[in-house]
């Protein structure tokens, strides 16, 4: 998915020190961002923000729906570019047609993960299908480390099997959790999983103490290590934990997405749909897109024009850091 803000926020960030002891759970609230046009589909964005810009290598999190497509118009994101990142698409309901410049033509369906590697440069489009009545899901980005950020673009698809938990269920789309491991390749250690909780249930997950974790609540009131996290909020838990206790405090079922990874050791500059290291690198990628450079290829089959890049800010992209734990 594209960041379609007219004036996208510039972000330069670095993670805190590794090995910090576990601390309290920090709650990150979302801001609403319209995805362009008079009938814009609105997403709730929890990463990046001033309070925190990275959780592991996870650098972007949009949560959307449930949206009645008859009212919102659904998703129609024209071809747009990416560099230096991987996009992770995960749906709860609906269906999205994906096309990209490496020739992939795939459907994003509930419970199936599509991971696209931008690397040196890729472009893609995303359109909800005509049969979609309710669109609901998350769009996530992962920053690539320096040694891999110019890697060749690629596309992967995986359907994780449900894993039974005592009081819930997990679907592990990246990394390892609850005895299951995803085969999807990433360039830093990562965790990504959908977890559902039965009413009143508590599930205690064994997690990597070297990871920081994020819990994005989709439905229900969930307690993360005792801290209440409401729908659309993202809970941050610092490294040092060996377990993560999730309690459904609602009368109905709860659903959430668990993210994790070791603190990202590099500074990154993120603007629009690009993740780089310097202002000049971002400016060069923008110029390449506007000049239809070969690095971004072409998306075949989309019935319309591609997205133009927004104007760069008049100043050098400014630094922003995660707070130290």
Automatic annotation (TrEMBL):
<keyword id="KW-0479">Metal-binding</keyword>
<dbReference type="InterPro" id="IPR003829">
    <property type="entry name" value="Pirin_N_dom"/>
</dbReference>
<dbReference type="Pfam" id="PF05726">
    <property type="entry name" value="Pirin_C"/>
</dbReference>
<feature type="region of interest" description="Disordered">
    <location>
        <begin position="300"/>
        <end position="325"/>
    </location>
</feature>
<dbReference type="Pfam" id="PF02678">
    <property type="entry name" value="Pirin"/>
</dbReference>
<dbReference type="InterPro" id="IPR011051">
    <property type="entry name" value="RmlC_Cupin_sf"/>
</dbReference>
<feature type="binding site">
    <location>
        <position position="124"/>
    </location>
    <ligand>
        <name>Fe cation</name>
    </ligand>
</feature>
<feature type="binding site">
    <location>
        <position position="126"/>
    </location>
    <ligand>
        <name>Fe cation</name>
    </ligand>
</feature>
<protein>
    <recommendedName>
        <fullName>Pirin-like protein</fullName>
    </recommendedName>
</protein>
<feature type="domain" description="Pirin C-terminal">
    <location>
        <begin position="193"/>
        <end position="292"/>
    </location>
</feature>
<feature type="binding site">
    <location>
        <position position="82"/>
    </location>
    <ligand>
        <name>Fe cation</name>
    </ligand>
</feature>
<dbReference type="InterPro" id="IPR008778">
    <property type="entry name" value="Pirin_C_dom"/>
</dbReference>
<dbReference type="InterPro" id="IPR014710">
    <property type="entry name" value="RmlC-like_jellyroll"/>
</dbReference>
<dbReference type="InterPro" id="IPR012093">
    <property type="entry name" value="Pirin"/>
</dbReference>
<comment type="similarity">
    <text>Belongs to the pirin family.</text>
</comment>
<feature type="binding site">
    <location>
        <position position="80"/>
    </location>
    <ligand>
        <name>Fe cation</name>
    </ligand>
</feature>
<dbReference type="GO" id="GO:0046872">
    <property type="term" value="F:metal ion binding"/>
</dbReference>
<keyword id="KW-0408">Iron</keyword>
<feature type="domain" description="Pirin N-terminal">
    <location>
        <begin position="42"/>
        <end position="142"/>
    </location>
</feature>
């Amino acid at each position: 998915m594209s960041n379609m803000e007219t004036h996208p926020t510039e972000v330069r960030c670095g993670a805190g020190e590794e090995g910090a002891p576990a601390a309290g759970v920090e709650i990150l609230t979302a801001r609403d961002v319209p995805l362009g046009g008079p009938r814009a589909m609105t997403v709730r964005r929890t990463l990046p923000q001033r309070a925190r810009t990275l959780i592991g290598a996870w650098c972007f999190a949009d949560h959307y729906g449930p949206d009645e497509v008859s009212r919102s118009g659904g998703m129609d994101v024209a071809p747009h570019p990416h560099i230096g990142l991987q996009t992770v698409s995960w749906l709860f309901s609906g269906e999205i047609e994906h096309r990209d410049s490496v020739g992939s033509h795939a459907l994003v369906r509930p419970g199936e993960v599509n991971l696209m590697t931008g690397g040196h440069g890729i472009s893609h489009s995303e359109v909800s299908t005509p049969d979609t009545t309710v669109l609901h899901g998350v769009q996530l980005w992962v920053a690539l480390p320096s040694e891999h950020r110019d890697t060749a673009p690629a596309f992967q698809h995986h359907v994780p099997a449900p894993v039974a938990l005592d009081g819930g269920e997990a679907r592990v789309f990246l990394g390892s959790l609850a005895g299951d491991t995803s085969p999807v390749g990433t360039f830093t250690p990562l965790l990504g999983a959908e977890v559902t909780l039965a009413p009143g249930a508590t599930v205690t997950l064994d997690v990597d103490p070297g990871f920081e974790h994020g819990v994005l609540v989709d439905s229900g009131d969930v307690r993360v290590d005792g801290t209440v996290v409401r729908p659309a909020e993202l809970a941050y838990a610092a490294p040092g934990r060996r377990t993560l206790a999730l309690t459904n405090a609602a009368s109905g079922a709860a659903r959430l997405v668990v993210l994790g990874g070791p603190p990202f050791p590099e500074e990154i500059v993120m603007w629009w749909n690009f993740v780089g290291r310097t202002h000049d690198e971002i400016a060069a990628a923008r110029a390449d897109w506007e000049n239809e450079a070969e690095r971004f290829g072409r998306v075949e089959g989309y019935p319309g024009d591609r997205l133009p890049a927004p104007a760069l800010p008049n100043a050098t992209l400014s630094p922003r850091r995660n707070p130290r734990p």
